[in-house]
Specification:
- The protein is α/β, with parallel strands linked by helices and about 325 residues long.
- About 35% of the residues lie in helices and about 30% in strands.
- The chain has 2 domains: about 210 residues, Rossmann fold (3-Layer(aba) Sandwich); about 70 residues, 2-Layer Sandwich (Alpha-Beta Plaits).
- The chain is built from 11 helices and 14 strands.
- Helix 3 crosses helix 4.
- It starts with a strand and ends in a 6-residue tail after the last helix.
């Protein structure tokens, strides 16, 4: 698998503040990498460094084989960037603006028309080609922003909060567009919207207090969502002591007279034994379901666990 972006030991200081502290990661061709973190965690600073808009105090960035610091012209040609506020000239029509973007990205004059027509079609802008950008909805303006980011077919596309402020229909359309973009480019997606990560991303990274504290596949993240507990309802329940004697059970929480929550050791699920006992001893089992953490719960748990093991960065 081709590696299109490598960030090594990135650090950025603002005075004594470590906005980003020793962050390293890479992204491969055809991959969507979700970049998460609370406000002030260092996401936007990292995005600005990766896009070449902010120099790191320490570290290296290589994009499609080019060093961003020593070969900035070649490296930046491999990047498409959509900041949270799209850099649009709203007094231009969509086509005029994209022609301009093709020119400043130094696309050969013989290819400008084809490049512009291609992104207009890919981004669903055919019906608004001759309209002023300032008169478009927020969703269409985001489409134009993505179009300018991919018009020069960069290796890596960086999208910073691409669905912020959109309505549900616009969000669905932009997510579909991002999936399409990812078939030909690698995408780094910075977002506050956690369900968006599950929907779009192959891998996820979480940054907090300037440090990378979690990096895994979506499957790995979903594994964290499975709690080691069962919810059950027994119309004829035994004493709690009997439930506590089930293999692997740590504690039993009584929710009401017939409903219980069993907390068990992760490697010792008592479900099968519970089912057998419920049948043989006539506990009248009417509900048995594994409890699952939401994505928000997992995110907060990771942030809180990391924060409790390190001193705040000053």
């Amino acid at each position: 698998m081709s590696t299109l972006l490598i960030a090594q030991s990135l650090s950025r200081y603002f005075g004594d503040q470590h906005a980003v502290n020793n962050v390293s990661f890479e992204i491969h061709k055809g991959e969507v990498l979700g970049f998460l973190g609370p406000n002030g965690a260092g996401k936007s600073t990292t995005m600005k460094m990766l896009s070449g808009n902010l120099a790191p105090n320490r570290g290296e960035i290589t994009i499609n084989g080019y060093d961003l610091l020593t070969e900035p012209k070649q490296a930046k040609a491999q990047i498409g960037y959509l900041p949270e506020q799209p850099p649009l000239y709203k007094e231009l029509t969509v086509k005029e603006f994209l022609y301009f973007c093709a020119q400043i990205n130094q696309i050969d004059s013989s290819r400008i028309k084809n490049a512009t027509d291609t992104v207009i079609e890919r981004c669903g802008l055919t019906d608004v080609t001759h309209r002023l950008i300032g008169n478009l909805s927020k969703g269409y303006q985001q489409r134009v922003g993505i179009a300018q980011a991919i018009i020069h077919t960069p290796a890596v596309v960086i999208l910073d909060e691409p669905t912020s402020g959109l309505d549900p229909i616009q969000i669905r359309e932009i997510r579909q567009l991002i999936r399409d973009v990812a078939t030909e480019h690698s995408v780094i997606l910075s977002t506050h919207i956690l369900p968006e990560v599950k929907t779009l991303c192959d891998r996820v990274q979480i940054i907090n207090q300037g440090q990378l504290i979690f990096s895994d596949t979506i499957a790995g993240l979903e594994h964290n969502m499975h709690a080691s507990s069962l919810l059950l309802t027994l119309n004829s329940p035994p004493d709690i002591a009997q439930l506590q004697q089930l293999t692997g059970v740590i504690t039993v929480e009584s929710l009401n007279s017939t409903r219980f929550k069993l907390h068990y050791q992760p490697d010792s699920n008592p479900t099968q034994e519970l089912l057998n006992r419920a049948v043989t001893e006539n506990w009248q089992l009417t509900e048995l379901s594994p409890e699952q953490h939401s994505l928000e719960d997992v995110f907060m748990n990771i942030i809180q666990q990391e924060s409790s093991t390190q001193e705040p960065i000053s």
